[in-house]
Amino acid sequence: MTPVIVVHGGAGRIAHENTDAVREGVRTAVEIGQRVLVGGGDAVDAVVAAVRSMEDDPVFNAGRGACMNADGRVEVDAGLMRGRDAAVGAIAAVPELADAIAVARAVLEQSDHCLLAGDGAVRFAAAHGVGRFGRDAVWTDKAQARFDAARRGTPGASGQADTVGAVAIDANGHLAVACSTGGVLLKTPGRVGDSPVPGAGYYALDGLGASCGTGVGEAILRKVACFDVLARIRGGMTVTAAAQAVCDEVVALGDDLTCGLIVVDPRGEIGVAHRSEHMSHAWARGAEPIHVALVVPR
């Protein structure tokens, strides 16, 4: 199997002054994951490494640079799924955590649970020596400016970034998916979106495929979008057609909704679709050159 990795930097609107930084951010994430896969590493290592890169890049709404809730604090969600055994590790509504996907991986590998939330996740992380916590680890001028603008009611303050995620298939045919997010600007404290929920914000299973979502989490949750797209592919739809159909149906659930999906099937076929102004994404197959884009032609 030729290994494949696909990443996204969120479905939404990317401000013109950020486009170069966003393109570079997703390109770097793919480069890091590609290096893992071409070097013989597995899909889990690749998607975690790619997402960690984007968590550390303040241009994205994840980790450092995550948006603030209504109290002016950062709360993050993350999810990880391993295709060979359908193992899941996820965290939700965790305050001021810069490397959420690392804690999600610890939940997958070192706990008997799939999802930990809030203070329980914080205590688990401390007990296992994982996670970079604290306001200094996540605060950025960008997030503060967006929070202040949104509180003033400035049009367009929200919707400039979203969840980051990655899907991959390795040389052994094993699949994995990882995602991380700061959620919704000015969200109610404790709000949890689709990103830590398997089937909704992410799903991976060997023989079925791997998918990762981005957009308005409440709608993606209602559609169970990431399992839905894989079920359609299993039913005979092409990867891209299935992804676009699910995105279209998610945004049809209400007004002002967005949705994006990245997918890789068990043969290594790639699908990317979105219903949003932008969705930064990038992919690589084996050691071939990296492809980067901000929109998918329709």
How would you describe what is shown here?
The protein is of the alpha+beta class. The chain has one domain (4-293): Glutamine Phosphoribosylpyrophosphate, subunit 1, domain 1, CATH 3.60.20. It contains nine helices and twelve strands. The protein has helices at residues 19-38, 43-55, 100-110, 118-127, 135-138, 141-152, 217-223, 225-234, 239-251, and strands spanning 4-12, 75-82, 87-95, 115-117, 164-169, 175-181, 202-205, 209-215, 259-264, 270-275, 278-285, 291-293. β2 (75-82) and β3 (87-95) form a beta hairpin. α1 (19-38) packs antiparallel against α2, α2 runs antiparallel to α3 and α8 (225-234) runs antiparallel to α9. The longest helix is centred in the first third of the chain and has 20 residues, at 19-38. The model has no long low-confidence stretch (mean pLDDT 95).
Given the structure, what is the number of helices?
Answer: 9
CATH architecture: 4-Layer Sandwich
Low-confidence regions: none
Order of helices and strands: EHHEEHEHHHEEEEHHHEEEE
Distance between the termini: 29 Å
User: What percentage of amino acids are in beta strands?
Assistant: 25-35%
Number of strands: 12
- What is the total domain count? 1
Spatial arrangement of strands, main beta sheet: 4-3-2-6-5-1-11-12
CATH H level: which superfamily? (Glycosyl)asparaginase
